[in-house]
Amino acid sequence: MIDPRKPWFDEAAGPLVRPFAVTRGRTRSVRPDLGMLTQVMTTQVEPDLRRLEPEYREIVRLCERPQSIAEISARLHLVLMVAKILVGDLIADGYLVFRTAAEDPSTDIDMLWAVLNGIRKL
Length: 122
Known about the structure:
Layout: H1 19-22, E1 39-42, H2 54-62, E2 67-68, H3 69-75, H4 80-92, E3 96-99, H5 109-121
Antiparallel strand pairs: 1-2, 1-3
Helix pairs in contact: 3-4
């Protein structure tokens, strides 16, 4: 049994706040066009956030330099969808700007044929 007199600082305790609580139950971002490779960056130096949750502050702090949503998710130990939802909120509030990643070249059939032909020439 857990001793209620001991604080929970142990990493083995796991997250004390579940992802759905961080997003207030939302499962979709207000920005469906955000991908895991989308680059985001703050629009202001030390903005005055109206959101009080620590995750929002950490995202803004991280995004002083361009970061992908995947990097934000990893650095804050958040599920990718949770990171997308929080980043979408900050974009909607005007604290972040984003740039979508270039189209994935692995899905371009002409690019794949050119790579295959180049390999055959070797």
